[in-house]
Design brief:
Shape of chain B: elongated
Largest sheet of chain B: 5 strands, mixed
CATH class of the largest domain in chain A: Alpha Beta
Strand content of chain A: 25-35%
Low-confidence stretches of chain B: 1-22, 99-111
Mean pLDDT of chain B: 74
Radius of gyration of chain A: 27 Å
Distance between the termini of chain B: 73 Å
CATH topology of the largest domain in chain B: Heat Shock Protein 90
Number of strands of chain B: 9
Distance between the termini of chain A: 80 Å
Largest sheet of chain A: 5 strands, parallel
Structural class of chain B: alpha+beta
Number of domains of chain A: 2
Helix content of chain A: 25-40%
Oligomer: heterodimer
Strand order of the largest sheet of chain B: 4-6-7-9-8
CATH topology of the largest domain in chain A: Rossmann fold
Shape of chain A: elongated
Order of helices and strands of chain A: EHEHEHEHEHHEEEEEHEEEEEH
CATH superfamily of the largest domain in chain B: Histidine kinase-like ATPase, C-terminal domain
Chain lengths: ~260, ~350
């Protein structure tokens, strides 16, 4: 009977320990040759020990279980271990990839062991489906990231770095390559250009009124229209008069 | 228009004899009227009655003045004391433009009784109109502020509900719960005492979080107990990777403090600061009072201000709640820790 070499990667020591004991009980031929407590270590240990199976926790510091899987899927069978991750579980179900939910029960572990025994007699061929599942997950995570808008501006304040909540900002103004952030309490310079900010800020709360200026709609005091039909905006607690360029006047037409 | 008007009048109030009524005189009276009205309008604006009040006043002044001047001119041209022609014009002048413009006509041979009736009627009508306008404005202002207050309350309720929901979701977040339960199960096999104490912490934590739904005020001590239970759980799970300390003077423990403000900061420090960092880090919670302001500081030595923090809605929810609870007197300050990590400072009036 050949021994099966396995690595467990989980950042929580108790859980590694528990899984190890459960595995030894369920599968006497298994040899846990190493344990990793973060993603990077998992990669190194997999390279050093060339295991048959890797049990990967999904949320780990350094590299996530997903990222580790991407890189080692050709060389070992992978079983994901997760406390709860609805999207991941959906993706694994779809691509028939094995996963264990924490707390791991002996019954469920037995099923996994049976499947692994069956597969191990064949060379690893799951890499394709793992890549599919990971691509699917990456797409979902990206999609979720894309819906959020910028809430904090990272700004240098003397020697300190501070986060300014966007609702405190009166307006943003382009200045050369940088952007001036004007709040009630003062001004600070940030590296992110106005063009990029325009894409990241919530379009309902922040309006670009000309090429170099984005205003906080909540900070608008008055909007006035000159004889020639040009609009200008005055902000609360601030003396600057900001001109609305013709391309952006539609924002004020309905007001 | 350049010609001199044919009639000469005596203006009794100023006791100027035989003042010539020409265009310049009429216009200067007109200018005077406008100046007085503008001054009143500006005064209303300055004492911040309303912007609208100022605008209404300017418009009514211009209308008054224009009508007044044209009626004065018309009256001067048309009046004929013998036949009584132009009496209507004189009365209308008095009604519309008020006593200032009508003064020009005082002493004119046109029947005096009509003028007095006109002035009286004019004053009465304008008083009534002004009274209505003023009342209407006051009502509008009062309604607007009532409406704003109502909106503020609704928003605040919504915020609190959302925050409660978020907290509930975070506290019984399946990932947190199942990971913690897995740990407890393991410890029951390997270290029973540790397992029991972790279970107690979980119960304490869950109990406290559920009771947060029924209370609107808490104390610093209670909030700290909740946070300590939470940190104890992570201490067991993360081992040496997490170290934490609290420095809160005993006299501040009974100070009132809103629930669900401190916990999200600590959770943020764990989730985005310490947990993703391979070598882990420290969390320090400090409280201090200075000049009626309470300062709660949660500092960590974790990952610090990364790119993704810009989108952090949990922290901006705290800002939003502070604003609703305390207006400008409460704030959340986020700064980079040295050499790494985040310092979150909550400032609220005590």
């Amino acid at each position: 009977m050949t021994t099966i070499r396995a690595i467990i990667a989980d950042d929580e020591a108790q859980l590694r320990h528990h899984l190890k004991h459960q595995l030894i009980a369920a599968w006497p031929e298994i040899d846990i040759c190493a344990e990793a407590e973060n993603g990077r270590q998992a990669l190194e240990l997999v390279a050093a020990h060339r295991p048959d199976v890797v049990f990967l926790d999904i949320r780990m510091p350094g590299l996530s279980g997903m990222e580790v899987a991407r890189r080692i899927a050709d060389s070992a069978w992978i079983v994901f271990v997760t406390a709860y991750d609805q999207y991941a579980v959906e993706a694994f179900e779809k691509e028939a990839i094995d996963y264990l939910m924490k707390p791991v029960t002996p019954e469920r572990l037995e099923t996994t062991v049976r499947r692994l025994k069956d597969r191990i007699s064949r060379p690893p061929e799951q890499s394709g489906s793992i890549q599919n599942a990971l691509d699917y997950l990456a797409a979902i995570t990206e999609g979720r990231k894309g819906t959020g808008s910028l809430q904090w501006i990272r700004a240098q304040h003397g020697n300190d770095i501070r986060l300014i909540p966007v609702e405190d900002v009166l307006y943003f103004k382009a200045q050369d390559k940088y952007t001036l952030v004007i709040t009630r309490k003062g001004e600070s310079l940030i590296r992110k250009p106005v063009k990029e900010l325009g894409l990241e800020l919530d379009p309902d709360r922040f309006w670009q009124i000309n090429r170099g200026v984005i205003i906080n709609v909540a900070a608008v005091d008055t909007v006035s229209r000159s004889m020639t039909g040009r609009y200008s905006v005055r902000l609360k607690d601030h003396s600057d008069l900001l001109l609305v360029s013709r391309n952006f006047t539609h924002l004020f037409k309905q007001m | 228009m350049g010609r001199v008007l044919p009639t000469e009048f005596r203006i009794p109030q100023l006791n100027l004899s035989l003042m010539r009524i020409d265009r310049e005189t009429v216009l200067s009276w007109f200018a005077f009227t406008i100046a007085v009205h503008l001054a009143i309008g500006y005064f209303l604006h300055a004492i911040r009655i309303d912007n609208l009040g100022f605008r209404l006043h300017v418009i009514s002044t211009l209308v008054h003045g224009l009508f007044g001047v044209s009626f004065v001119l018309a009256a001067l041209y048309l009046s004929d004391p013998k036949t009584g022609t132009g009496r209507l014009a004189v009365i209308l002048t008095a009604v519309v433009s008020g006593s200032v413009c009508s003064n020009i006509l005082v002493g004119s041979p046109v029947v005096k009784g009509d003028l007095l009736v006109g002035i009286f009627m004019g004053t009465l009508v304008r008083s009534i109109l002004f009274g209505f306008a003023f009342y209407w404005e006051l009502v509008t202002i009062a309604e607007a502020s009532l409406e704003q207050e109502r909106i503020r309350r609704i928003r605040m309720n919504k915020q609190v509900n959302e925050a409660q929901l978020n907290i509930l979701q975070a506290q019984i977040e399946p990932h947190f719960l199942f990971n913690t339960l897995s740990n407890i199960l393991t410890l029951f096999d390997t270290d029973l005492e540790k397992g029991k104490s972790m279970q107690k912490d979980l119960i304490r934590y869950l109990k406290a979080s559920f009771s947060r739904f029924r209370i609107s005020t808490s104390t610093i001590g209670e909030e700290l107990a909740l946070v300590e239970a939470y940190l104890n759980i992570f201490k067991v799970r993360m081992g040496d990777r997490l170290r934490f300390r609290t420095e809160v003077p005993d006299r501040l423990r009974n100070a009132p403090f809103p629930p669900m403000l401190l916990q999200p900061l600590v959770e943020n420090a764990i989730k985005h600061g310490i947990e993703p960092k391979i070598e882990g880090g420290d969390i320090l919670i400090r409280a201090a009072e200075h000049g009626g302001t309470l300062r709660l500081v949660v500092s960590d030595t974790g990952m610090g201000i990364g790119e993704e923090i810009g989108m952090n809605t949990g922290l901006s929810n705290i800002c939003e709640r502070l604003k609703l609870l305390y207006g400008d007197r409460g704030r959340l300050l986020l700064e980079e820790n040295r050499p790494t990590g985040l310092v979150a400072t909550l400032e609220v009036p005590l």
